[in-house]
Amino acid sequence: MFHVKHGEAPAAPPSAAAVFGECLELAEQYAAVLAGAGIERGLIGPGEVDRLWERHILNSTAVAELLNSGERVADVGSGAGLPGIPLRLARADVAVTLVEPLLRRAEFLSEVVELLGIPVTVIRGRAEERAVRDAAGHIDVVTSRAVASLDKLSRWCLPLLEPGGRMLAMKGERAAAEIAEHRRVMSSLGATDVKVMECGVNYLTPPVTVVVAVRGSRSGAGRRGSRIPPAPRSQSQERRPPRPQGSTRRTK
């Protein structure tokens, strides 16, 4: 077991207290680990220290606005634990599993989870592997952050989900263009109701752009009925989960 080295992280911004609540101290400890062992082991670049909170930690919690209480979340390609660990610290009412194929990163994640004392599962393996799907069990939501293109993410993430489950892919300003580029592949894999949403609009500038896709029924994958529609204009969701000092909006 490696020693989880702490570094000097910037002070948490005022918005962090509202996002993390009673877990703020754990979030600060996680930030210190990223500034220490995270850089030492090549998981975070040295130039990222000054923007750990806004660019990485709070950025990761923004998708918590799209989660419902009691859901089981798998973070694919978790790397340094982003967004999975901040999500669990912000939302104690969801279960989080971190999926990471690289041994050194998986070891880091296990150490951090143990250090923070949070009930997060770490699985070493690739999301597309049957063993990972079996180990993960029932999954309602799959998250990813700057992992791969949407066609690859759909191949990796959708099979982990139960029908009706959601893939939340954190993307940049090209999200809509990427949907258009990979529309057919995503549809053939069973992705439905694909849309672009912005999260954390009240405490992040810019907010986080998220591609949301629902996994259709197993029998419907690739059929005409699983066609991906264009991203609709702003519209309220039918069910609104608890949100950490922010509001989610669907982009035009």
Structure in words:
This protein has 252 residues and is α/β, with parallel strands linked by helices. It has a domain at 62-229: Vaccinia Virus protein VP39 (Rossmann fold), CATH 3.40.50. It contains 8 helices and 8 strands, in the order H-H-H-E-H-E-H-E-H-E-H-E-H-E-E-E. An 8-stranded mixed β-sheet has the order 3-2-1-4-5-7-6-8, with helices on both faces. The longest helix has 17 residues, at 24-40. Mean pLDDT is 88; it is low at 219-242.
Key structural traits:
8 helices; single chain; globular; 8 strands; alpha/beta; 252 residues; Rossmann fold; eight-stranded mixed β-sheet
Estimate the strand proportion: 15-25%
Unreliable runs, pLDDT <50, ≥5 residues?
219-242
Give, in spatial order, the strands making up the sheet with the most strands: 3-2-1-4-5-7-6-8
The total strand number stands at: 8
The largest sheet is: 8 strands, mixed
Helical residues, percent: 25-40%
Secondary structure topology:
Elements (H helix, E strand, L loop, with lengths): L13 H7 L3 H17 L11 H10 L10 E5 L7 H7 L4 E6 L2 H14 L4 E4 L5 H7 L4 E5 L4 H8 L8 E6 L3 H14 L2 E9 L8 E8 L33 E2 L2
Enzyme class: transferase
Family: Belongs to the methyltransferase superfamily. RNA methyltransferase RsmG family.
Pfam family, one: GidB
